[in-house]
Amino acid sequence: MSFHFMFKIVIIGAAGVGKTSLIDRYVDNTFNFNCQSTIGVDFKTKDVEIEGKIVRLQIWDTAGQERFQISFSSSIYKNADIDIVVFDLTNEESLNKIGSYLKEIENNTRANPLIAIVGNKSDLIEEQIENVEERINEILKGRELKLFKTSAKDGTNVNELFYEIAKTFKENQPKHHLIANIDFENNDFENNDSENIVLEDIVFENPERQNSKSKKCC
Ligand SMILES: Nc1nc2c(ncn2[C@@H]2O[C@H](COP(=O)(O)OP(=O)(O)OP(=O)(O)O)[C@@H](O)[C@H]2O)c(=O)[nH]1
Ligand SMILES: [Mg+2]
């Protein structure tokens, strides 16, 4: 399997909002009621075809619990092409944390990443926070970021979320950031500090590293 572009997506948000569950639903089409807290970072990949090109999405899962989090100054955040900030549509506290996550992204990413806000657990219809769109607009303070409502449990909007953000990124940034300086053999992702190289329409052979560093969450 080969691919034309690779985009690095980082998923951020409070503990228990469903970050890992969203990735598991999207990549493996699975859902686990007793998903364990993520420790540190983890990633999975999925290839998606967008307008005739194969785009490899490298999706990084982060820990919501502060004691398991890695620093926002880490290259994981710095080199992100796309940041997805997730909250739980049934949990006020997770909504109130969005502002501080946005500040961390703005302070720690090198280039302007594409940012999407995701309210997860849309299946829990009875327990939804009221006036969520208005609340989000207040938090965004004029930033024009798209809000998606998803359910990792029943799959609502999950494929659409990843497809739409990848397509938007591809369209808005014709010169793509292909993550350079990765030692595929040794999975040396932490030292990926070089300038991103610009590559267009070059097909890369699959380095056979998919999920090689993944820790199974569930
Ligand atoms: N009803 C419902 N439950 C969900 C959904 N997504 C996740 N959950 C549940 O919410 C809990 C937390 O999900 P996780 O995916 O572990 O949350 P997380 O954001 O990765 O949590 P941390 O790794 O601790 O930061 C689990 O019990 C999931 O089964 C959803 O869309 N609907
Ligand atoms: Mg998790």
Automatic annotation (TrEMBL):
Signal peptide: 1-22
Protein name: Gtp-binding protein ypt1
Keywords: GTP-binding, Nucleotide-binding, Signal
PANTHER family to which the protein is assigned, alphabetical: RAS-RELATED PROTEIN RAB
Gene3D superfamilies, per database record: P-loop containing nucleotide triphosphate hydrolases (3.40.50.300)
A molecular-function term among this protein's GO annotations: GTP binding
SUPFAM superfamilies (UniProt xref): P-loop containing nucleoside triphosphate hydrolases
Keyword match GTP-binding: yes
SMART domains the record matches: RAB (SM00175), RAN (SM00176), RAS (SM00173), RHO (SM00174)
Keyword Transmembrane helix tagged: no
